[in-house]
Amino acid sequence: MTWGRMPSCAPVANRRWPGESGTRPKLATCATMLFSLASAFGQQSSLAPGGTHASQIKSLGVFFFWLLGIIFLIVIAIAVASIFQRGQSTQDEAAQRRLKTAIAGASVLTILILFGLVVVSVGVGKEISAPGGRGNELVVEVTGNQWWWFVRYLNDDPTRIVVTANELHIPVGRPVLIRGLSNDVIHSFWVPGLQGKRDLIPSRVTTQWIETNEPGRYRGQCAEFCGLQHAHMALWTVAEPESQFQQWIGTQLRPGAAPSDDLQQRGQEVFLSHACVLCHSIQGTTANGQVGPDLTHFGSRLSIAAGTLPNNKGNLAGWIADPQNIKPGTRMATVPLDPTDMQPLLEYLESLQ
Ligand SMILES: [Cu+2]
How many Å lie between the centroid of ligand 1 and the Cα of residue 294? Predict the structure, then answer.
């Protein structure tokens, strides 16, 4: 699966997702972009399931669609037919009886169909929420924050606990238990290509099993209105083969990369000498803030600010210079920086692979 295109008609430089052409979109191209939206939705669609749970949800939806669609057409056909039969008398006894039988039959059929649908959907609901663990499961804690996702891979061995943000990596074919929490209001964890929704509720743990049989990127989105920037609270789920996943875990377990040149060295100094450290952590440095996302491996992440922008230097500069402009209301403060400090800071943050 590729990035697809995240179309945007907004004339904002550098707001491009990887793979998009360098030209700024003109008004005329906006129409075509609307169509390519469909392909972007492919990465966040319950109609493009990447695992068994999502397939079951899709099959249920398709079954409902066709059954109810056919019933709808039958009802309309009867209604139209009755218009043309208006001249006929319904006064005689035989006609009255036929009418009563028809009404009674339709009522019983309706009740049976509705009851059947309840049974089918409860059955699917049970199947997709059944524990998927066979002792080989991965347990990931996902905590909703206004408006980003804190992610922690639990492990009995505390030195193997991985902390990241706004991005999940999962091994293909292995069940993953999501332990959902919230730090503030109710959020909802929803990766349509993999599972249904599960609310994240303050001071309560909710659980959800996800499993995928197809490597790829699945976009998730907070599905419970949680304030001003609810729409900018997305996350990427990257499903990859076990070996690649283990490699990823191995990298994430390492402390933040040491600066490899003078520019990055300066960037680290800028970071550590500004208010950034009050809110962000970079393992291996003195930065130990807990308010915002852990930045130890920020450079390896796909997006900035919970899917708001693709991760590249241009977007990062815009974000750091004026986060409130990009995500009004975000809990990240604007930190005044000397203009010459920006480039080194960008080099350093993007080097944190
Ligand atoms: Cu939300």
Answer: 20
